[in-house]
Write a structure and sequence with these properties.
This protein is an alpha+beta fold and 585 residues long. It is 41% helix and 16% strand. The protein has helices at 22-28, 31-42, 94-100, 138-148, 162-165, 186-192, 211-227, 229-236, 243-248, 270-276, 317-323, 332-345, 349-364, 370-373, 383-395, 399-404, 408-415, 436-444, 455-464, 469-489, 501-510, 518-538, 564-580; strands spanning 5-10, 15-20, 56-59, 73-78, 85-90, 105-109, 116-121, 124-129, 154-159, 173-175, 179-181, 195-202, 278-282, 292-300, 308-315, 423-424, 427-428. It binds iron/sulfur cluster.
């Protein structure tokens, strides 16, 4: 029987213990299933997300590192942004390094006495003081740790930037080369624990009794991955290939979601970035696709000298939307410059971009003025101003700039402009204005992300194949349910269509998890769904509070105009099915 292990770390007590958690994996499969159960059991509604008691759980699943594109790690925590379930997924080498350190889960609790980084190398767990890293950018921190932590085995580097140290609820954790636990504020949670970084490595490897069926299945999946059209798209231009097509169908958020068509789309398209800036494509461990697009651009050290540095920064659709079309920036170079500052500070790019867009509209509508902004005049399209503002947020130049890194919802409640605050349950909206299903997906999703149920795909499907509203919402619901299983395996969602239920069951069987069948997977999906919403509701979430941001009733989307009443109907349908599928947990 395969066994699974959890590394339990208490930063306050400075203890670490490896415990057998095979039973948890037998019941909850792995990844998001296991981590949700652990979060629920170790974090109550009384727990402040930034208190020492708040846990952070990193988990992989039973297929990680054994099959192609099973390359992600999930993090569960209580979100300082929403106050309820925090969940984020990241690639890089973390899943591999965690596995090779001999662990499938790592739960961190407590708070380090001094500013530290956590080192995990097989069985050696150490908290090391990190004063020299204080205030250091997320990019420089990795460079320093790479030099310091030379060791054998696969290494993975997680770190926060200064934004996480300042406990910004929109700060992220950066993983290896440009991968992120981006959404919902994990950076602040690590910051509150006095943890600047985690370096993890090991040299265990995957052992199997019967290799032949495993190798046959591996090869079949590998062939599908490398030959599938969808994967070619991710490898070729990456998700940024969506920019032009989305704009053509009025689906690309522009100027704080004022419209779906961006006149500068071609300038910031995947095609333009690839032609003029793409330097390298890299991949997460165990992934033959390599969708991570790294651009380079040159920047003068000082304006008066002819000396330049070459900077490397990753880009994709969400980043181009958040720092490009939604701010009306049509210069790819400026998008990269903004991204570089954001990478260094360690903010979630979507959240900070949407907050800047809200601030710009608030300025245009005279809700805030130059007294608030210390003389800055905000206007869409002015990249230099946004660059200055990001630096002022980082230095906390005045109260308003300090507030901007608390996110859109916080700012709109304090300064006004809630009608055009583009948030769903306090989380800033991702890059689609394709219609009702995108927004219903963000609202009803457990982490309020486009990755919960991909409603934007349903919006695009129904352009040519119309179905009833109820059928559309059902598609979102069913997709969300299947993703609870896929996210328990912690695969990359880009490969979700390759891993259908039959393939998943075959893969589980050949990797020593023989007790799973279709019925058990279906029950598990309902259990995870129920438990996640139980946690959310106990921590203040209510379906009844969900609303379409009022501005979106006046925007022409891919599927035309939207109404608040249709949105409410969609939420009610989702809630009804969730109640019908309720599984006691
Ligand atoms: S497709 Fe991209 S994000 Fe997904 S595992 Fe591969 S490289 Fe990582």
């Amino acid at each position: 029987m395969r066994r699974f292990y959890m590394l339990e770390i208490n930063l306050t007590e400075e203890t670490a213990e490896r415990v057998d958690c095979t039973e948890l994996f037998s019941e909850w499969l792995g990844g998001t299933g296991v981590a949700t159960k652990l979060l629920y059991d170790s974090c109550s509604s009384e727990t402040d997300p930034l208190s020492p008691e708040a846990p952070v759980i990193f988990a992989i699943g039973p297929l990680n590192n054994a099959f192609p594109v099973m390359s992600k790690t999930v993090a569960l925590f209580k979100s300082p942004l929403t106050g309820d379930l925090g969940e984020s997924h990241a690639g890089g080498r973390l899943g591999l390094a965690l596995f090779e350190s001999g662990n499938h889960v790592m739960r961190i609790r407590g708070k380090a006495k001094e500013f530290s980084y956590l080192s995990v190398e097989n069985d050696q767990i150490e908290l090391k003081q990190a004063y020299s890293l204080k205030g250091m950018s997320a990019l420089a921190t990795e460079r320093v740790l790479r030099d310091v932590e030379t060791r054998s085995g696969k290494r993975s580097f997680l770190r926060i930037g200064p934004a996480g140290e300042r406990l910004s609820p929109i700060s992220c954790v950066t993983v290896d080369a440009s991968r992120h636990f981006g959404r919902l504020g994990l950076g602040a949670v690590l910051g509150s624990k006095n943890v600047k970084a985690i370096v993890i490595s090991g040299d265990s490897y995957f052992k199997l009794d019967n290799k032949k069926p495993y190798l046959q299945l591996y090869q079949r999946i590998f062939d599908q991955v490398v030959n599938s059209e969808a994967m070619t798209k991710y490898h070729d231009l990456g998700t940024s290939m969506n920019v032009i097509p989305l704009s053509k169908i009025n689906g690309l958020p522009t100027r704080n979601f004022s419209q779906g068509f961006f006149e500068g789309a071609e300038n910031i398209s995947g095609e333009t970035f690839a032609r003029d800036f793409l330097a390298q494509q890299i991949a997460c461990a165990g992934c033959p696709i390599g969708c991570i697009h790294m651009a380079t651009y040159r920047e003068a050290f000082e304006p008066e000298h002819h000396m330049y540095k070459t900077l490397k920064v990753s880009y994709d659709h969400e980043l181009i939307y958040a720092l490009g079309s939604n701010l009306s920036i049509d210069s790819p170079e400026m998008v990269l410059k903004l991204l570089q500052v954001i990478e260094k500070q360690g903010w979630d790019a979507i959240s900070i971009g949407v907050t800047l867009a809200w601030a710009t509209e608030a300025f245009q509508r005279a809700i805030i003025d130059e007294t608030t902004t210390g003389g800055e005049i905000l206007s869409f399209g002015n990249g230099e101003t946004y660059l200055r503002i990001l630096k002022k947020i980082a230095s906390g130049e005045n109260e308003f700039f300090s507030d901007l890194e608390k996110g859109t919802e916080y700012c709109s409640k304090k300064y006004g402009g809630e009608d055009f605050a583009m948030t769903f349950r306090r989380n800033e909206a991702p890059g689609y204005v394709t219609g009702m299903n995108a927004f219903l997906g963000y609202a009803t999703g457990v982490r309020h992300s486009h990755l919960d149920s991909a409603g934007y795909s349903v919006d695009q499907e129904i352009i040519n194949n119309p179905i009833s509203f109820e059928e559309q919402v059902r598609k979102i619901y069913d997709e969300a349910c299947w993703r609870f299983i896929f996210n328990s395996l912690v695969g990359c969602l880009f490969a979700r269509k390759i891993y259908d239920q039959k393939t998943v069951l075959e893969a589980l069987e050949v990797s020593g998890m023989k007790s799973w069948d279709a019925e058990k997977l279906d029950t598990l999906s309902r259990k995870i769904h129920s438990l996640k919403f139980k946690f959310k509701e106990e921590n203040g979430f209510s379906f009844d509070d969900l609303k379409l941001p009022p501005k979106l009733e006046h925007v022409y989307t891919t599927n035309g105009k939207l109404s608040q009443s249709d949105f409410k109907k969609g939420v009610e349908l989702y809630k009804k099915w969730l109640q019908e599928d309720h599984h006691p947990v």
